[in-house]
Amino acid sequence: MANLRAGLIGLGMMGRHHARNLRAIDGVDLVAVADAMGDPHGVAGSLDVLPNVEALIEAGIDYAVVALPTEFHEEAGLKLAAAGVNALIEKPLAKTTEAARALAKAFDEAGVIGAVGHIERYNPALQSLRSRLEAGDLGDLYQISTRRQGPFPNRIADVGVVKDLASHDIDLTAWVTQRQYEWVGARTMYKSGREHEDMVSATCTLSGSLMSNHLVNWLTPTKERLTIVTGEKGMFVADTLTADLTFYANGQSLHVWDDLAQFQGVTEGDVTKFAIAKPEPLRVEHENFRDAVLGKETDIVTLEQGARVVEVCEAMIASAKTNEFIRVS
After folding, report:
1. What residue stretches are annotated with the GFO/IDH/MocA-like oxidoreductase domain (predicted)?
2. Pairing, β 141-151 against β 219-231
């Protein structure tokens, strides 16, 4: 069987990593790249740098990776769908919920595969966490909290921290817990003089009365990427920078005085750090999308799920403006 012919549009910071992985995975040949701004990182190699998505399509590709700035996702994605080309589109799926839904509809009607590059789903710590939650290792879930903080990346100009960074946490929270967002409340701040927000603090409710809290900003001098799930049997902490997963069990405490025991909360128990394999998440993401194009059963972030993430992002932004909780449709 011939290798799949892949194309890449967008040769910026993420584009260079996509190019590296497209060249590394089995069963795929990177045959065309495109970027109207050229090739600042020299990833094209022997390939010509094409000017636009139309030229990419004309190269005769089986699928494309779209690593353009968010504001150009809709235009490129709609043209790929119309041409019958499968596409992996970087997150967030689009700049607005309306545009994201238009993409999901276009790919569905064209009968081609579309996916969103929410890379955290492929982080080994979160994949292990999801499996353990599904197996009931934590019992009833009470709360999930995420912290995603770090310096401002100069490459981001068209969206704020909610759609660029918090979108990761929105998707991973819904995916890890297998719940849906229902209510969103948030506060945002503008501290760096940009048009868009650079800090958000959100409190949300997911289906099954699960509480979530998200602290995300571009104002912290060191990176932090934590997902903390608290439940009936203890607490899981996933560090997605190091792909480590740790379980803090509730301890057992015996009391002679029964009247005191009824007021006793949890106590510290055993701590377990799991040994898990740590493949590169972006590589796993590419392998999953390749398999989806080949018709195999695999785990991709669907365009419908990507549109849902954008909707929750916009609910956060609306909540911050109105000082009200926003119901997610």
Report:
1. 127-236
2. antiparallel
